[in-house]
Amino acid sequence: MTPRRDPQSIQLMLFFTALMLTTLVILWPASAHPDEVAGSSLRLTQVSVTPEEPQEDTLCALQVTLANDGEQAVSAFAFRVTVDGVELPAYSNRIFFQPLAAGQEATLELYNFWATESDRPQLRPGGPAVEVELIAARQLSASAGGALALAAPVSPLPAPRRAGSEGPRAAASR
Questions:
Q1: Which residues, including other chains, have CB under 8 Å from residue 64's CB and lie 6 or more apart?
Q2: Tell me: the pLDDT tens digits for 60-75?
Q3: pLDDT tens digits, residue range 114-170?
Q4: Pairing relation of β-strands 130-142 and 74-83?
Q5: CA 60 centroid distance within chain
Q6: Cα separation, 104 vs 145, whole angstroms
Q7: How far apart are CA 29 and CA 25, in angstroms?
Q8: DSSP 143
């Protein structure tokens, strides 16, 4: 005969089981490569900062390389950029209108930033940690006159990428 358990211990056991499963689902990687989102036609293949290891009070140039694996041209890119965990306000309400044709890859020059600023006065060894996230993009469609017009939003968007990291397809194409 199996021992009888009181309802309170059963509830506690169910609670901890649910907590463990929830933690597992949250921490489990979404794909084999965390920099790729299943179904995304856009990829952030590279984020580069120049100079790679800046000194204090150095102006850094930021570039991103985007690849369009979709069947339609895209544009109207909006980004969220963080440096050492601090979001750069220059990117809020800014859209980059460089068209990117289907099957093509392009490098976009983003805004420069200072290696150290008042909200991040200490320079980390190896330079600042820069992360870029594409938060919006739109497909382009040709109108009757041949002009391009913004169409549907691109969804899903690629995962954020840190400076100095390359995606598996970008590294293989070199």
A1: 44, 46, 47, 48, 79, 107, 108, 110, 132, 161
A2: 999 999 999 999 999 9
A3: 988 877 777 778 788 999 999 999 999 887 787 888 888 998 888 888 887 654 333
A4: antiparallel
A5: 20
A6: 24
A7: 8
A8: -
Distance CA 163, CA 12 (A): 44
Residue 21 has pLDDT above 70, yes or no: no
Rounded-to-integer distance, Cα 83 and Cα 69, Å: 28
Q: Which residues contact 173 (CB under 8 A, 6 or more apart)?
A: none
CB-CB contact of 43 with 167 (8 Å): yes
The predicted model scores a pTM of 0.69
Token digits of residue 14: 């169910």
- 51 DSSP 8-state letter: S
117 burial (CB, 10 Å; 0-12 / 13-18 / 19+) is: middle
Single-letter residue type at 82: T
Q: What would the two tokens of residue 146 be?
A: 């041949």
Residue 13: what are its φ and ψ, rounded to 5°? -65, -40
Encoded tokens for 113: 């930033």
Give the pLDDT confidence of 92-110 residue by residue, as tens digits: 989 999 999 999 999 999 9
